[in-house]
């Protein structure tokens, strides 16, 4: 699967989340996403990105524009070295939060993406990969 | 080791007048100071700096964060503050400290001319000390600059969240841009404040200008709406564009609030609730007046 562009940006503060939204939107536009798809991807990035900052203690986001020959897509990889998640099923459950949010972020991000993968273990950090296709 | 470091400070004490004169000459040369007013100001600061170095009962030169360094740090903080506010660059600010190296090293050279090993050691200690003080100056400078930026952001926040009165008892809050937590706090406060002062019973929150509505934004909106309700005002959410509506549904958000696509629809609803109607004027009446 050829990669058209590949960049990595830091995710440390809530200001970085704003920058991430802008960068993801720019990539989604360049990949030819419709307005609805752009908004879905940006919102998913905002949810997971904020988790990286708030719960993962900061990390990085890799943004790739990929193509499978017929369709183009944007793949986002959020990596942090935070405390990790012990129970992934519980974390993905709507309405569950270990913090003070609404508990809809991860489940919502999954529903907003075409592909969604989360890997985590206590003490091992968390890696969330999600993608959306045109 | 602490004895060696103390040596430098006692040397400064003994030769402070000469050191000050040479230091000022270096600053004048390095920073190209032409203005006599500024020269006087720098001489004052440099004098204060050396005085604090001499007077303080400083035994350690390797950790300037210690309490005994407090007065010295204060001089540097004052310098950084003045420079940052007056718009000097970081190098123009830090040169104050770094230009002390030349006269201080010269002083050490004179003192330990016969002991090369000792000279090298003391020079290293002095060099590290001045580097630390210089870095501290730059850090304080950056801190002041950040304070200025934060203040400007704050001013911008208040500017960009106006609460407008559309009709007697009907407020509107047009939200624009990123709803980060700091801004939402101000939005919430100004809306609640206006509800109190105007006694409004209906508030229209318009999110046409909000590019992304995620769960955090939604949470802020829900809190604002609940607080307004507690104060006796009903909120109407307007300006939900199609893509935002779809996203909200996918996120699984339940916004328990009356919402309208446009501000005009929301105003029409608000007027209806306030028992007001807008009617077309009779054409004949229009021509008569």
- Describe the strand arrangement of the main beta sheet of chain B, using strand numbers: 1-2-3-4-5
> How many individual helices of chain B?
12
CATH superfamily of the largest domain in chain B: Globins
Spatial extent as radius of gyration of chain B: 32 Å
Please identify the top-level CATH class of chain A.
Alpha Beta
Largest β-sheet summary of chain A: 5 strands, antiparallel
Query: What is the assigned CATH homologous superfamily of chain A?
Result: Histidine kinase-like ATPase, C-terminal domain
Number of domains of chain A: 1
Largest interface: A-B, 24 and 20 residues
Principal-axes shape call of chain A? globular
Silhouette of chain B: elongated
Question: Tags for this entry?
Answer:
heterodimer; A: 134 residues; alpha+beta; Heat Shock Protein 90; five-stranded antiparallel sheet; 4 helices; 5 strands; 37% helix; 31% strand; globular; B: 289 residues; alpha/beta; Globin-like; Transcription Regulator spoIIAA; 2 domains; five-stranded mixed sheet; elongated; disordered N terminus
Furnish the topology, listing elements before pairings.
The complex is a heterodimer of chains A (134) and B (289).
Chain A: E1 3-11, H1 14-30, H2 35-54, E2 59-67, E3 72-80, H3 88-92, H4 105-112, E4 115-120, E5 126-133
Antiparallel strand pairs in A: 1-2, 2-3, 3-5, 4-5
Chain B: H1 2-14, H2 16-30, H3 36-55, H4 70-86, H5 90-98, H6 101-111, H7 116-159, E1 164-167, E2 170-176, H8 181-198, E3 202-209, H9 215-230, E4 234-238, H10 242-251, E5 258-260, H11 263-273, H12 283-288
Parallel strand pairs in B: 2-3, 3-4, 4-5
Antiparallel strand pairs in B: 1-2
């Amino acid at each position: 699967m050829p990669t058209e562009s590949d960049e990595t940006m830091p995710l440390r503060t809530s200001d970085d989340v704003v920058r991430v939204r802008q960068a993801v939107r720019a990539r989604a536009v360049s990949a030819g996403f419709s307005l609805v798809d752009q908004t879905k991807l940006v919102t998913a990035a905002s949810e997971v990105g904020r988790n990286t900052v708030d719960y993962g203690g900061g990390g990085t986001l890799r943004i790739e524009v990929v193509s499978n020959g017929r369709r183009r897509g944007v793949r986002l990889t959020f990596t942090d070295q935070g405390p990790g998640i012990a129970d992934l099923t519980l974390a993905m459950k709507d309405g569950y939060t270990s913090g003070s949010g609404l508990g809809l972020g991860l489940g919502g991000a999954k529903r907003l993406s075409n592909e969604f993968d989360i890997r985590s273990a206590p003490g091992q950090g968390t890696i969330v990969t999600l993608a959306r296709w045109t | 080791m602490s004895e060696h470091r103390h040596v430098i400070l006692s040397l400064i004490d003994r030769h402070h007048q000469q050191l000050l004169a040479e230091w000022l000459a270096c600053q004048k040369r390095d920073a190209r100071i032409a203005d006599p007013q500024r020269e006087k100001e720098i001489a004052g600061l440099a004098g204060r700096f050396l005085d604090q170095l001499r007077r303080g009962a400083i035994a350690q030169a390797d950790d300037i964060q210690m309490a005994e360094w407090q007065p010295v740090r204060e001089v540097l903080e004052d310098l950084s503050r003045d420079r940052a506010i007056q718009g000097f660059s970081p190098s123009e600010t830090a040169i104050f400290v770094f230009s002390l190296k030349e006269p201080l090293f010269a002083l050490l050279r004179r003192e330990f001319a016969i002991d090369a090993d000792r000279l090298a050691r003391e020079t290293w200690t002095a060099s590290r000390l001045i580097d630390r003080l210089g870095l501290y100056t730059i850090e304080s400078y950056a801190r002041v600059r950040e304070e200025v930026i934060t203040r400007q952001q704050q001013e911008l926040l208040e500017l960009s969240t106006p609460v407008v009165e559309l009709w007697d008892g009907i407020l509107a809050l047009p939200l624009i841009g990123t709803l980060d937590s700091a801004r939402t706090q101000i939005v919430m406060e100004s809306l609640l404040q206006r509800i109190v002062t105007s006694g409004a019973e209906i508030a229209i929150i318009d999110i046409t200008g909000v590019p992304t509505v995620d769960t955090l934004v939604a949470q802020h909106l829900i809190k604002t709406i609940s607080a307004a309700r507690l104060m006796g005002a009903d909120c109407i959410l307007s300006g939900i564009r199609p893509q935002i509506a779809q996203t909200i549904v996918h996120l699984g958000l339940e916004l328990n609030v009356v919402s309208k696509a446009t501000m005009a629809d929301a105003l029409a609803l608000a007027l209806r609730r306030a028992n007001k109607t807008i009617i077309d004027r009779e054409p004949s009446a229009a021509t008569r007046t």
